[in-house]
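Worked example

This section walks through a single chain of length 383. The input is the sequence exactly as stored; nothing has been trimmed or padded.
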Amino acid sequence: MSGFIKTTTPQAAQPTPRELLRREQQRRTLRTVAIWILGPTVASAIYFAIIAPPDYESKFEITIRGSQPPTTSIISQLGITPGAGATTDPRMVVDFLHSGATVQLLRARFGFDQAYGRFSLDPFAGVNSEAPLERQVGFWKHKLKADYDSVANTITLSVSAYTPQDALRLAQGVLEASKDVEHTLNSQVQQGSYQLAAQQVAATKRDYEAAHDKLTKLQGNVNTLTIGAQAQEMVTLVGDIDTQLATLKVSQAAVEAAFKPDAPQSKAIESQIADLEKQRASAVGQAKTAPGSSAAEHDVLVQAALMDYEFAQKNYFAAEAALLAALPQNQSQSFVVSFIPPRLPEQSDYWKRFLNVIAVALASAVLLGVGALSYSVIKDHMQ
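Given that input, the structure is written out below as tokens.
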């Protein structure tokens, strides 16, 4: 036979065990990356793209303005500056806006349930109107952002909802609630100041009448009595101290209503009242022991009664002056000014929130790296 040339094709080289191990490690690495990085990233992208409804934010800024109440002059004397035009602590307003009272106001008048009670694929995007108030308050805290600037004495508020109209309506409700709480605080300050001033007048009047009756029984005619010049100086000094004490005690009620009970402002008022009471006691003691021409003319009991009468009279007059200053028409009020009012939002955060997807990817990569490094360290340690 004519010869046929027999050709053979070379067989593919079989992979070595090392190559098989390397390929398996590569596949394992890809699976790990897909599970721990691509998985959360894709899931978050689907959530923000399809499930979570976009938010519309209505921002506005408010400040608390008004004439200075009696507390401000006292605080200024103590070297404490409450802020330009500030009459209450704005943080109290912020706390109130995050409270259940504000949620109830928004539900009753500004469509809270309408804004957050619609059906949504996102179970965290709303709250049921029949849910407990605590749960509604917790949900509301995520929808209302408040930033207080103590230097400028302004509060920046941001209300988010799922339609521009809902965001604007709820922002207007928050502005109304801030005005309500400021009015309530003003009323509490005025009522507390007036009640304390009235109590002081009643107490000092009883002391004044008792001193008058005692002196009348001893001498009979108050107008004919005289005291020495040095004693008169002490009486005048005590009268000035009584006037300061009456003003401080009335203002103390306003300070306690405007600030927290343990605030430095309240402690400073208490300290100043204690110092003035010590000065008054010292001045009264000096006045009663001061020599004068009257000491030779009047009985010691009459002289002591006269001094008590002078002190009680001046204390009573000072309390009446403080009561007049504490009348509501004579007290200043603060009020909320919205110098940047709420406006209808024009754009949602739909595209902006996809930055969260990048954040999820980076966080997943970091966690995966930390986990891999920890596993490697533990594995080497065990070997």
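What to look for: The radius of gyration is 39 Å.
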